[in-house]
Amino acid sequence: MLETLMNLVQQQAGQAVINNPAIPNSQNDSVMQTVASSILSGLGQQAQGGGLGNLLGMVVNGGGNVQQSPVTQGVQSHVEQSLMEKLGISPQVAMSVAGSLVPIVLSKLMNKASDPNDSSVDGNSILGAATGQQGVDWMGMAGSAMADGKLDMNDLLRVATQGGGGGLGGMLGGLFGK
To answer: Could you read off the pLDDT of 122-162 as tens digits, one per residue?
Structure first.
């Protein structure tokens, strides 16, 4: 998963990192590595901080409207913080880099996950990496939750209350007092 993210960051890093005069060339690799790892840890923060439904929606929808997602905004903020803290990059440059890369990389990641011809990443691996729960059939649970063709909070609540003790139902059950 981290390797896939790193590849996506490297593919998109031109203007934001490599051709950015505010980032010394000697720091390009460190910036890209920090962005990739911070996107992954930021997804984890979102999943564990109450944004699992939004993240699941992004994965299920193949990245549709990533720009407006609270997950993207949270991950972007996490990447900004990491760039400032780990590499001493100024707030303005960190905001510029994160603002340029995070939405594009997340969109491409979600598109890859929904592409049946691309086996580099899938929805289950994204959600497993974000939640720390590998081997769970997240997409199967999401599919059964979407009785009306879309994933919304009512669907998540239904899965949480019917899901028993494991997986998405167990995890969300804890959030909703079950």
So the answer is: 888 888 888 887 776 767 666 666 556 565 666 655 544 44
Distance of CA 12 to the CA centre of its chain: 16
Residue 128 CA: distances (Å) to CA of 46, 99, 122:
13, 25, 10
Q: Are residues 41 and 104 in the same domain?
A: yes
Amino acid identity at 89: I
Is residue 145 located within the same domain as residue 129? Answer: no
Mean pLDDT of 76-97: 96
Dist CA 33 CA 28 (whole Å) = 9
Cβ-based neighbour number of residue 107 at 10 Å: 21
Kindly state whether residues 127 and 157 are assigned to the same domain: no
Distance CA 172, CA 12 (A): 34
Total domains in the fold of the chain = 2
What pLDDT sits at residue 59?
83
Q: Helix crossing, 91-114 with 2-12: angle to 10°? A: 120
Structure tokens at 66: 């990533």
Same domain (yes/no): 140, 124: no
Q: Which domain holds residue 71?
A: 2-133
Residues 141 and 63 in one domain: no
